[in-house]
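Can anyone check this?
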Amino acid sequence: METSWPSSSKTTTIIGRLSNCYCSAWPTLQSVMTTQQNKDRTSTLAELLKDKPKRGRPPHPVSRQNVYVALTPEEKKEMKRLAVSLPANLSRADLPDLAIAVIAARLEALRRAVADRNREIPEGVTDLESLYLLWDLTIPKNQTERKWTSIRVSPQEAIELGRAHGTLNAAFGANRSETFSLALILLAQFLEDHPVPETATLGEIRKTIMSNYL
């Protein structure tokens, strides 16, 4: 069977119609492709930013960290007693932060008092016992054996405890446990002299400590 091909004029007409159809459809097709590319780009960007940490203050409080100190049974009982005197919205877990805030403020006040003499500790304070006397504290008697325990401390207070320990260790050879024991006694003194309101927050008590000693 012989195949009959369209004439050249008909072929030109068909090609022209196809070309017109393609040209008229191209803007729509281009718009669809652009929209899809934008969706893909947006989706990819969203995935990249999904787990990216944001700058500035964390959206939630930074968790406390464990710090190990050796305490006597009497000091553990004292922590329980002090916890009862705290506002209802605070607990025993907040005691270490407050104790460290007090000793940090007291040492800073001491440092400022002798700043013009290029010292950290006054000349007359030659040991840990004389520091107790300077601050009107009762010197601890020979106590029972200390046992290691962990306390939960906020990041800033962990730094302050390290700074206080460094100062007392360089001046008197005090270890970290002795530093924290002194902090507990100072906190007890502060709470006795400055009862905190029942509605006070941890931050408000910190500010009260700073304003009383600095």
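Reply from J.R.: I decoded it. The beta strands are 65-71, 147-153.
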